[in-house]
Please model this.
Amino acid sequence: MARAATSRLKVNPPLGRMPVLQFMPPAELAIDGSYQRSIEARESQALIRRIAQHWNWDLCQPLVVSRRAGENGGGLFVIDGQHRLAAARLRGDIAQLPCVVIDYASAGDEAASFVHLNQQRRPLGALDLFKAALASEDEEARAIMAALGEAGLSLAAHGNHIAWKPGQLAIIGGIQRSWRREGARVTSEALQVLGAAFAGTILQYAGTVWPGIVAVCAEQMAEDRDFPAGDFAKFTAELGAIGQQELRKRVLERSGARPELGRAGAALQVIREIRWPGRAHVAAAKVGETRPVLDFKPDMDGMAWCDQCDMRVRRDQAEGCKSRFCSLRRVAA
Model:
């Protein structure tokens, strides 16, 4: 009989003491500002108002609370969950909050736990959120899945392209943005182009070429309502003949030469030249104006707080975040 996986894992002895689950009145809970982030920022206040307005017990995870037994008379200090606490206080009708209460000797021990809690969290990405929306039978998610299927595409199980199969996509965040900006018809057509052009291949660089394909489909369908007879096959054949890797190279070269375009604007130019080779270059101002930029202001340890993730993140995590709700990504003015 196969040995259990844990028998091969070398583990360290458990640290700390087992916590106690208690229900505590919000008025008895305090915040230690010496290590906790401020919630006075506009983004934090907006998040608190959203939680308060749409309070849902199904989403209220227990707060992590420290009981200081011997420091300045003791007290109960929230380590994790101060946005939920502030929202409960704002409402005024939440009599008790579920709390995991742990005994700490000092604020220093609490601060160390605060850091560990936030470092060990893995924020949900667009793919995770889409799968959850799909499981909850969200109308938009179901419509997008249907469009993927009609294009011969499917949803990737994860973001690691090494294990993908041909036709699997993980760029669900980009597809959702196109669905909301350009509409279902244009996005469905763009998925058809993507599926036909790169049929039978791993869609490793789909995220780079996708904005250009969507923009060209939007232009095409605005002018002619649909691809003229034979043009769809010609366009997708040309894209497939060039290949994803070469298209990505062209997009990167164009965005390097024209930084004001951004990746999406460069992709539009590259794909547009393939669809309409006789047309002049376009500045893609609309795409450039709406591209997201990073508003990352690190503290002394190089990390910054993200209200959407409810945790401190590194710059590379913020740069890789695809959530349209991310508080560290802004739209360029």
